[in-house]
Design goal:
Layout: H1 5-16, E1 27-34, E2 39-43, H2 56-66, E3 72-80, H3 91-99, E4 106-110, E5 116-119, H4 121-124
Parallel strand pairs: 3-4
Antiparallel strand pairs: 1-2, 1-3, 4-5
């Protein structure tokens, strides 16, 4: 059974409900489908020492790796202060996604028109860092 984009978006929206965003009030959820078709979710976790916080995308990637996932097939990101609003991964998370992405990886986010759009990692991070 395949997980639809709508189900992936709903999982990201649901994950943000558990975000710990006491300082910014901006909750983010991320949901990943890995190379084996399994879903992994994460939410942002803030910390009073700001650099110690964790992004939702990083949490979802960590959950994927923990379960043996090697590649991101699709990832949806949902963020906002109250309602879901336009939110794309930060620069650091774009680099994190790239580490587990390939040319077929799809990143689903809400754009400024409040429509859900699909992007490749090359569109969001055109000059990303690679070691290979």
């Amino acid at each position: 059974m395949s997980i639809s984009d709508d189900d992936l978006i709903d999982a990201a929206k649901h994950a943000r409900e558990n975000a710990y965003c006491h300082y910014s009030g901006y909750s983010v959820g991320a949901a990943i489908i890995d190379d084996q078709g399994r879903m992994h979710v994460g939410c942002n976790i803030e910390n009073a020492a700001y650099p110690l916080g964790n992004c939702a995308e990083a949490a979802a990637i960590a959950a994927m790796v923990l379960q043996g996932g090697k590649r991101i097939d699709r990832i949806a990101v949902a963020g906002g202060s109250v309602d879901v609003t336009p939110c794309t991964p930060c620069g650091g998370c774009r680099q994190r996604i790239q580490e587990f992405a390939d040319e077929n990886t799809v990143i689903i986010t809400m754009d400024d028109s409040r429509d859900w759009q699909q992007y490749s990692i090359a569109e969001l991070l055109p000059a990303g860092f690679h070691l290979d």
